[in-house]
Amino acid sequence: MTAIRTVRRPCALCGTTDATVLWSGHEHEYADTTDETFSVVRCDKRGLGRLDPCPDISELDTIYPPTYYSYNMVSERRADGRLPLKEKVSAKYAGSVLSAAVERAGAADGRPLKLLDVGCGDGRILDYYQANRAPGTLETWGIDINADALAIAEKAGHRTVHGAFEKESELPDGYFDIIIARHVIEHVEDPVAFASRARDLLRPGGVFLAATPDFASPDARKFEGHWGGNHFPRHWWFFDGAAMRALAEHIGMECLAVDYELNPVFWTWTAHSALRDRYPSAKWVDAVFPPVKIFYGGARSFLLQGVFTVIDGVVRKRSGMTGSMLATLRKPG
Hints:
Blueprint: E1 6-7, E2 19-26, E3 37-43, E4 49-52, E5 54-55, H1 60-63, H2 88-105, E6 113-118, H3 124-131, E7 138-144, H4 147-155, E8 159-162, E9 176-182, H5 191-201, E10 202-213, H6 218-223, E11 237-238, H7 241-250, E12 254-261, H8 264-278, H9 283-288, H10 299-319, E13 324-330
Helix pairs in contact: 2-3, 8-10
């Protein structure tokens, strides 16, 4: 691995550079990106976390290699359109998230709800949302930078737009009831521009759901540089509940709720990072705690995710938090 170009960005909320270093770490999931050390810092004024130094935008193809997991998760759909049994649990949870969002967004005057999934990939999550609504009551849209995945989503009946969310002008302003971005905002160059774009696309009273790591969680504080939510060097911004509320206020939205989700993948990454540092040459570390193959199913993935889901559930019960939060922001109106 070689050095990459980096930049020193100020806080996205206040523009200042004064910050406290929380912890440092490095890439451990892929062997072909960079071995540089990166630090997570917290703005002394607004509390927003950021990566410092941060990879330059020109290095995206380096830090997101062709083998990056989200580029390789295109799934096969059944010919009859029904969900496979193994996906019904995920679909049920997606339905509960959607129901809460619908309640918070208010009535849609009898018309179909208009939902946009940012970073939709092949549209599988949009399938989950549709599976929980009566036919004709949900209009699903997706935007992504992966054209091949979008073609699959479009074939499944979802409306798609190809491009970067903050810059794409094809999406209609004031149109959507619900916009969902699951673990996207921490990856972008400017989270304020990202959230502001969601605000502009929502109708008055519409809601923006942003799932993102919580760097104030018990597991983040305990494991610090080895915490799975770091995802070095691809997570550029770090939120907790207070920082998310500050972002909402900054762009003229209301933070209605911050909920905490179970995320066993973060625990797998935490274990892999800690053990990879301790046993840098041991092949068993990748075999026991696979940082990429954890996404692709199989008995090992099922076992790991089951165990870490239980652990995350215990942490949430005791602390009220996990390393993954879901914030609901509402547009005035």
